[in-house]
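pinging the channel bc i need a second pair of eyes. not urgent but kinda urgent?? the chain im working w is below, pasted from the shared doc
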Amino acid sequence: MPCLIALLALVAPRLTIVVLVIVSDWIGAAYQTVLWPLLGFVFMPYTTLAYALAIHQAGSVSGGWLALVVLAVLADLGSMGGGGRSAHAVVVVREP
């Protein structure tokens, strides 16, 4: 089951957050309020999942877990920035 959730997290992080909220208490135990997971769901789902995993496994974000959270932040920023480059694409049309 954990491998299935990990694969789901890579493909659909928001769906994984919803499944974890329904099935377990990982998100609730990692965050003290509802605001941060809700903002994470909307803006940075990979970071939300990585932080919850770090808190669940180690109790804090340090060492290798910090590296995982930093990679998740970079993945979130990369997934957000991809649409901007394609929006500014210039199409050159040559007339005969």
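so The mean pLDDT is 81. and The helical segments are 2-11, 13-23, 26-30, 35-43, 45-58, 64-87. — does that match what u expected or am i reading it wrong
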